[in-house]
Amino acid sequence: MPGVLCRVAAVLVAAALAGCGITDTDPLPAGRPVQGGLTEDSGRLLRVYFVTAQGTWPVSRPAPAGDRLQRAMDALLTGPTADERARGLVTRLPAAAEPIRARSAGDRVELRVPWLVRDLPPVAVSQMVCTAAAATDSGGDPVVEVFEPGMGSEPWPVRCDASGSAVPARQGGSS
Asked: For residue 164, what are the domain limits?
């Protein structure tokens, strides 16, 4: 039996020393980098932002017929699906007695919210702003103007940055 064990050990050592037979190669070109965040079916998808321990996280959902912007805000208020919750996604928006009213005007989005923005966690504001920005048809980087109850005509002008966070928009219409 010891002879058999020695032969098995010798075969295992030889196999380990031989490697897998794949030689090193230099980097090879793989084509152009991916552009954009959604597939060519993005016209039929909504991007809704929820929250993980690392910050906001977009999910894609089928876009029912109708106003994409308002549908996205309604989906945001509905919260993550059971599958999304199982993956650790949550919402930081409080329950709302009224919907978020959304409308798009060129490169601007107006959100009329049922809460005071200063009372919301920053990640909840990011959820709203980034969901609204992703749902517009402008194709650019829209300014999202958030109007609070009793706020009159002075909104909070913000944008969604590349990390999925709401950031102040510079005055004068440029970012």
From this structure: 41-168
